[in-house]
Amino acid sequence: MIELLVFDVDGCLTDGGIMYGNGDQEEFKVFNVKDGFGIVAWMKLGKKSAIITGRGSRVVERRAKELGISYLYQNVKNKKAVLEEILRAENLSFENVAAIGDDLNDLALLRSVALSFAPNDALPLVKREVSVVLSRNGGHGAVREMIDYVVASENLSEAFVNPWL
């Protein structure tokens, strides 16, 4: 049973674009509201979520806090090792994890989990390695599509919808 969803940021939760303002600390990213709503709905099932990303950003920290994401790790070089820490803390195994990634730094983590996903615009090598290639691009509902897939495959559709009725 999937208990933890793991998300990459750039190219998955966003389209991979980074916009800088005039100030040294001004960075902008666009997140998809439907992705965020799906994450919140997933956690209403009593499940966990994690962001493990190779870059650091106050914008990502703000988004994770806003959504109530259980774990946030930024500036990560070895994503699989960080996931192992989370699994120990939660007393879970790789079989309890679904993850989404789009580039080379996601491969080791994606290869280790029960269900792996890539946005439609992911690196071709990553798309060949994952369980499911999504129809949506990163930042344009790919994470929500992933969540909907996991919810359906775990027979949680009714429980996923009920809190909103």
UniProtKB/TrEMBL annotation:
Question: Which BP terms in the Gene Ontology apply to this protein?
Answer: lipopolysaccharide biosynthetic process
Keyword Hydrolase annotated: yes
- Record carries keyword Magnesium: yes
**Domain of life where this protein originates:** Bacteria
Required co-factors = Mg(2+)
Q: Which GO terms describe its molecular function?
A: 3-deoxy-manno-octulosonate-8-phosphatase activity; metal ion binding; N-acylneuraminate cytidylyltransferase activity
Query: What are the EC numbers?
Result: 3.1.3.45
Binding residues for Mg(2+): 8, 102
Write out the catalysed reaction.
Answer: 3-deoxy-alpha-D-manno-2-octulosonate-8-phosphate + H2O = 3-deoxy-alpha-D-manno-oct-2-ulosonate + phosphate
Task: Tell me which Pfam families the record gives.
Answer: Hydrolase_3
The cross-references to InterPro entries, in alphabetical order and at most eight, read: CMP-NeuNAc_synthase, HAD-like_sf, HAD_sf, KdsC_fam
UniProt keyword terms in alphabetical order? Hydrolase, Lipopolysaccharide biosynthesis, Magnesium, Metal-binding
Residues where substrate binds: 10
Q: Per the similarity annotation, which family is this?
A: Belongs to the KdsC family.
This protein's assembly is summarised as: Homotetramer.
The identity of this protein, by name, is: 3-deoxy-D-manno-octulosonate 8-phosphate phosphatase KdsC
Q: Which organism is it from?
A: Sulfurospirillum cavolei
